Every structure is written in structure tokens, then in C-alpha cells.
Amino acid sequence: LAGCSTAATMARRHASADSAPSRRAQLRQALAHADRMTIQASVPGETTPAVRELAGPAAVIDFLDNMEIDEAYGPVHCDCPVDGVFSFYAGEKLLAALSLRRLGYLRRADGPWGGSDVVVTANSMQWLQQWSKQAGCDLTAQVQAMAAKETQGSDAAKQRFVAGFTPDARKIFEQADTVV
User: Fold this and answer.
1) In sequence order, which residues have a C-beta less than 8 Å from that of residue 170 and are 6 or more positions away?
2) How far, in Å, CA of 137 to CA of 9, rounded?
3) Are residues 42 and 141 in contact, defined by beta-carbon separation less than 8 angstroms?
4) Per residue in 88-121, pLDDT tens?
5) Which pLDDT score, from 0 to 100, does residue 10 have?
6) What is the 3-state secondary structure (H, E, C) of 15-37?
């Protein structure tokens, strides 16, 4: 999880009777009056990706019912590109905007989260990808582009490494699947 760090080494929080509401409860409260939402995927190379609107409170309720936040993780900050943005409205008023990073971190810049990220559960991460794709908005484009770039970088590094050897030694690397 390069690019992601925690403020408190991702230590488990111990909830007490007088503690603040869970981050999921805070999100539910903030979106209680939402009547629609939009999804905007970040697509590498596109300056203004298309916005997909999901009208009616049913989409918001579906999102909230399936979005599980792993409350065990403390404040997290994932310093990586945005995969997509979910915006929630009551009429024309923006209630909240959540940015998704690495398909598993949600950030709400305003409100009680203070700009930190929350970690969504693995089940929610999978659900969110499928649900967004069904809604016509593929959130995996940014992650796929990053993976392709990392693969290209590792191939280039391998070629530079192998180039430093004699032609006979290079044959060994050509026969091997991996360079140690």
C-alpha cells in the first residue's frame, strides 16, 4: 500500500460508551436528506471525465447500505491519485463529496473526518467496483493505468540491469522468468 500511511500506525480503536459516532454513522447522518448522487471516474488522459447521475434516494440508500467502513483503522492518509468522486445532493445543494483512492480509501474533505481517509472493507470495495460499473462508471481505469505504468517501469529497470552484463551472461537472464 505504497503512498498510504496512518497517523497512529493503524492501531485498533477501543470504542467506549461516550465515544463519537462511527464514521459510517456520520456519513449516514450527513446524507440523510440526499435525493440523488453523481459518480465521476478519473480516467487517465481525460481532463473532464463524464459524470454519471443516479437520480432518486434509492441510489443513495443502496450506496450507504453497502458501504462498510472498517472502523478499526484510525486516521489514514492515502497520498495517491483519485479513482473517482461520489457527490451527494439534496436538490441543488451539495451535501458531501467523497473521493475514492486505491479503490479502498474514501476521503471526505469537509465534515467530521477532517480530510483523513477511511478504509472500506474488502466486501464493500468489490461491491463498489461492480455497482459503479453497472451504473456506467468504471472506477478501475486509474488503478489499471497505474499498474501498467509500474509494470512498464519494472520492465525498463530489468532491461537496464541486464544491459550491464556481457552478451553471454545476458542469455541467462533471457532464459529466466525473473531477475533477482
Assistant:
1) 162, 163
2) 33
3) yes
4) 999 999 999 998 887 788 998 887 887 788 888 8
5) 36
6) CCCCCCCCHHHHHHHHCCCCCEE
